[in-house]
Request: fold
Amino acid sequence: MRISTLHSSADTMRPATELLTKLPSPLKPCQNIRQLLSRLGTAAAKVNGSLAFMEVCGTHTMSAFRCGLKTVLPENIRLISGPGCPVCVTAQSDIDLMVGVAGLANVIICTYGDMLRVPGRRGTLETARMAGADVRVIYSSLDALAIAQKEPDREIIFAAVGFETTAPATAAAILEAHRRGVDNFSVLASHKRIIPAMRALLNAAPTTGLGVDGFMAPGHVSVIIGSRAYEPIVAEYAKSCVIGGFEPQQMLSALADLTELALAGRSALINQYPEVVRADGNIAAQKLLATIFEPCSARWRGLGAMDESGLAIRTEFSRFDARVRFSLVQPQESEPRGCLCGQVISGLAEPGNCKLFGKVCTPINPIGPCMVSSEGTCAAWFKYGCGGGAFAAKSKPQELLS
Reply:
């Protein structure tokens, strides 16, 4: 199969080697939403049956619910949330490890705010802090390094999660700690790589029954890895990938392109975000990642262990690896009883299918990470309703969208 890449649906199909090397085009005004709805509706009306497209980005998840995107889609077009929330995909055993590390003597554990309330088998980082552990919320990996320099008699452990978007910042902190000779700083890394997860979903589809006709590819991750990274998904699985932005117009345009490609029986890679996503991505960030990390097998919530789906700190920087530094042993994997977060982030269930949702599991008393994270599907459902809040209140959502 020849992979074709477009910068907009108006372009003709050309070889990837031609369009993938183009410099980003100037920002073009979006079609208004009424036009995009008409275009999507026209294509959907010609589809025999239904189509399901998956977004694999937590920001897409929350943006779609916030603007009520699902309430205006044609009945035969579904947008499924996949494993795009970094907090949600973090394995339960990694959460348990973080909570356990927080209880070590003379340790300060630093992490991002979303991780504070994710439940483990022995509580959360928040409950560990209430019990006396020194747990601090930071906004940058360099904040943790600064704490290490200010408190040289304490061990500072940065519990780092996220995809290729946040991993370069973690790598930068490790490299800077190495340069400055900071000896009391280490990282408990749980970073993930998105392409192996997409492959795993598609490889398991014959068994799980997951039906995905294409992907709305993540904008933020794509800035780092580049549009070319999705070529294997198109070539090997015949699944279109459209890299889109986060505004309603941008998401609708991506869905329209995916629907038109499916209708035409074609698979293609379309970069609708050329202003920030280049073919080869951010080379400097990729080199930084390759300097500090190497791909490794990693466990994902709901997806299990996948080869090369994580990032491990290289041996030459192992003194900054908390797993090595403290001889940490990974706990056994154990999901909360009755929680469907694993199925939700795999696209196999919706929050409404979970008996705990909105009853036992709420933002005040979350059972799983999808209800905790600001990018979690369950949190979005709870806050905005199953279709989304902004549009659902209108009897004619198209008028609001125009």
Q: What stands out?
A: DSSP finds 18 helices and twelve strands in the chain.
